[in-house]
Write a structure and sequence with these properties.
Number of strands: 3
Number of helices: 11
Protein name: DUF2231 domain-containing protein
InterPro entries: DUF2231_TM
Strand order of the largest sheet: 2-1-3
Distance between the termini: 44 Å
Oligomer: single chain
Organism: Lolliginicoccus lacisalsi
Order of helices and strands: HHHHHHHHHEEEHH
Number of domains: 2
Radius of gyration: 21 Å
Strand content: 5-15%
């Protein structure tokens, strides 16, 4: 089974774009601006904080499954499930804070990742609600939760390692040999700006994150630094639709501008 090919197809699911935009808007409200938003996005440690805190619920739920399988301490397993449910919102919060900085293809994968995590949380909540006297039902819900968590983890891995989400965001300059994965501005940002129906749209830098904005859509437009406008790109690509190599070349050039503006 070509799982990698399936994950690549998720990147092309345009019907997920409204959900991605909605999650990005929620992420902006959750993270906000200033030091709080930067902390949620991991500026203090130099990379997204989400991969760090996500191990809290994952570890608790996997430990619960192990305890329930190899011991008779079901109450202990149930407490571990509860621990996972208590820490899951923290992981979700840091994940939502990342969505505004993702390009279109990354947001589509993020939507499926977030949905799978929500399913996992629902399953473990159902397992916990069964109580100590309904162990078989709780175990069934727990297994379903583990399966959903596995799907979410696979999607999250694709988002981080195959698509490079959040890579190099807090670097003043790209590491030697880092390539496109370490860029702030990616070809997806350029494509998203070119596809925008608003001729006044622009790629801007907000709190160190490149975001495509339509005119009047930003919560703090005065604080956003413009990297490039749609009009400028229209002029550069007036010979016809840009090719993949054109998008990559333009993204690399804009990435240098973004780093100089955000440094």
């Amino acid at each position: 089974m070509d799982i990698h090919g399936l994950l690549n197809k998720v990147e092309d699911w345009k019907w997920l774009d409204p959900a991605g935009d909605a999650l990005a808007a929620i992420g902006e409200r959750v993270a906000g601006k200033g030091q709080a938003g930067e902390a949620l996005r991991g500026k203090d440690i130099g990379h997204p904080i989400h991969p760090v805190v996500v191990h809290l619920p994952m570890g608790a739920w996997m430990s619960a499954a192990l305890v329930d399988t190899v011991t008779t301490s079901y109450p202990v397993a149930r407490r571990l499930v509860a621990l996972g449910l208590l820490t899951a919102p923290v992981a979700s919060l840091t994940g939502l804070a990342e969505v505004p900085g993702l390009d279109r293809a990354q947001r589509r994968v993020a939507v499926t990742h977030i949905f799978s995590n929500a399913v996992a949380q629902g399953c473990f909540a159902a397992a916990w609600s069964r109580g100590n006297d309904r162990r078989l039902g709780a175990r069934a819900w727990g297994l379903a939760g583990l399966a959903a968590m596995g799907v979410a983890g696979t999607l999250g891995g694709h988002l981080a390692y195959a698509q490079g989400a959040g890579v190099g965001r807090w670097s003043v300059a790209p590491r030697k040999g880092a390539g496109q994965a370490g860029a702030m501005v990616r070809p997806g940002h350029v494509a998203e700006l070119m596809d925008s129906p608003d001729p006044s749209a622009a790629l801007v830098l907000e709190a160190g994150v490149p975001v495509v904005r339509s005119s009047g859509s930003g919560p703090d437009e005065d604080e956003a630094v413009v990297i490039v406008t749609r009009a400028v790109l229209d002029h550069r690509f007036r010979g016809g639709p840009p090719s993949s190599s054109d998008l990559e070349e333009q993204a690399a050039a804009l990435d240098s501008i973004a780093r100089s503006l955000g440094a």
